[in-house]
Amino acid sequence: MPANVEKSPRRPALTGDRPWQRQGAALIGFLAASWVVSLLGSLPIRMNASWYASADKAPWTPPGWMFGAVWLLLYAAMAVAAWLVWRQRDFPRGAALKLYGGLLLLNLAWPLMFFGLYPMMGVAALWLALLLIGAHALVATLTVLYFGPISRTAGLLMLPYVSWLVFSASLNVYAAVNN
After folding, report:
1. How many CA atoms, within 13 angstroms, populate the side-chain half-sphere of residue 58?
2. Which stretches within the chain are classed as H helix?
3. pTM to 2 decimal places
4. Mean pLDDT of 59-67
5. Which of 6, 78, 99, 103 counts the highest number of beta carbons within 10 A?
């Protein structure tokens, strides 16, 4: 260590009488919030999936069961990433956590647009959903960039989410062009 640099003691991630209990409760809270968003976002899919079942889908569309499984894992990874950022007290984390909140809102908005509005608006809803998923991917990328300096693990946990959004955007483009 250079002589002119003082090593400051690291502050604990959280202070208080029961830091592990508080951290565990916070992790459960982040997981619960993510899964509630997942459940609410799945409602328009379940209510309006009949048109999609008969729609012209991209040849690279995975089987239906895979979407639920992948999103369950992605929501868990997102929650853990947000929790890792939340527990860091050495860094300003407000902006990063606001981006995470924005991601949860975008996760609610996309299925409402793609599945919920298609019966009323037709293909226009698919094009609007594409704009929304583009914004979603941008916010997710910003979240990676904000999470990474606070917690490298958190930033890395968000990368599969960004990748899945890009993949989902390709399915959205195909659906908009071919239906």
Report:
1. 14
2. 19-54, 64-86, 94-111, 118-121, 123-150, 152-178
3. 0.84
4. 93
5. 78
